[in-house]
TrEMBL record:
Residues 25-144 form the Fe-S metabolism associated domain. It comes from Paraglaciecola psychrophila 170. This is Fe-S metabolism associated domain-containing protein. SUPFAM superfamilies: SufE/NifU. The lineage of its organism: Bacteria, Pseudomonadati, Pseudomonadota, Gammaproteobacteria, Alteromonadales. The gene is sufE. InterPro entries: Fe-S_metab-assoc_dom. It holds the Pfam family SufE. Belongs to the SufE family.
């Protein structure tokens, strides 16, 4: 965890305004994956930009094809995990947004209880990603679950 101000993460719509069930419903609306990719890229545009000072080796997700930084803070007062993520690749930002829709602004217990693999299967995500992108997504999830278990 980082010693960051809790308010830094409060403006992200992921986990509150943009929820995993909303994303699943929207993705199912599209007939082809080209439209779904556009939607995923648009999701990435909703992510607040991570300040350069947070783009450190400590926050870098190991195993991603593109550089991805994840910052997580535990709000003990409200028992919530607050997260921010950024990448230079637009599609990766969108994929990170999908992950945050399930985990951001949730309790550590909610994070560990959520079956993210079933969610990915429901939206048919991994069959349309390269193995490198899929591995990177799983590395991000693994780090979030690790951090949630430490709270």
């Amino acid at each position: 965890m980082n010693n960051l101000p809790i308010t830094h993460f409060s403006d992200s719509p992921f986990g509150t305004k943009i929820k995993s069930e909303d994303i699943a419903e929207t993705l199912c609306f599209f007939d082809d994956w080209e439209d779904r990719y556009r939607y995923i890229i648009d999701l990435g545009k909703e992510l607040p930009t991570l300040p350069v000072s947070f783009k450190t080796d400590e926050n870098l997700i190991v195993g991603c094809q593109s550089q991805v930084w994840l910052v997580c803070e535990y709000d003990a007062k409200n028992n919530l995990l607050l997260m921010a993520v950024d990448s230079e690749a637009q599609i990766v930002k969108g994929l990170a947004g999908i992950v945050l829709s399930a985990f951001n602004k949730k309790t550590p217990q909610e994070v560990t209880d959520f079956n993210i693999e079933a969610f990915f299967t429901d939206i048919d995500l991994f069959s349309h990603l390269s193995s490198m992108r899929g591995n990177g997504l799983r590395a991000m999830v693994k780090k979030i679950l690790y951090l949630a278990k430490r709270c």
